[in-house]
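Notes from the 1:1 (GR / supervisor)

We went over the backlog. Supervisor wanted to see one worked example end to end before approving the batch request, so GR pasted a single chain during the call. The sequence is below; no edits were made to it. Supervisor asked that the structure be written out right there so they could see what the output format looks like.
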Amino acid sequence: MTAPTPRRAPAGAAVLREDVTEAIRAAVFEELAAVGYARMSIEGIARRAGVGKTAVYRRWKSKLSLVLDLVGAFAAQGLPAPASGSLYGDLRVLLEVASHALRHPVASQVIPDLLVEAARHPEIAETVKAVLLDGQQGVMTQVVREAVARGELPEGTDPGKALDIAVGPLYWRLVVVRTPLPKGYLDELARAAVAGLKA
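Structure output shown during the call:
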């Protein structure tokens, strides 16, 4: 018996260059913000990224799989768990991070569009839920647990309701009615959330 001939490492077109992949990912966000999911096309993404359509199809089979992969990557990143030492401080950090993300020029266009598409595509709905809810739910669970341990909140405080009370108004303002935040709004919202949760 002869030893199997070792396979050569793929070269040339068989190698997926990371710089091309990143250019495509950036182009997807720009295209989503410019034309929305419904009008977005692989051709438009490739043109904006400065690559051929085959470079996109080599990585993703459709625009749906591309968007799901991209949004899923953000879900995997997760949110940093605040550790300020107080319930108010932790909620204020969460609100600051969420506010910054929701006011980003691209995110402010992409998120409302994806929410509309989520009503039509269950796959998008699941992925958007993972990005907008599951990650923040996990962080809020930790915030509530530590607040209970410090005696700031009663045992049995529901992290889901805590998330609704703290972050819900922010989503309403920035994603639904799309109005600017008044000066001091995040401070007031964090104080109101603390008061509501303690009550």
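Supervisor's comment: Residues 122-149 form the longest helix (28 residues).
Batch request approved.
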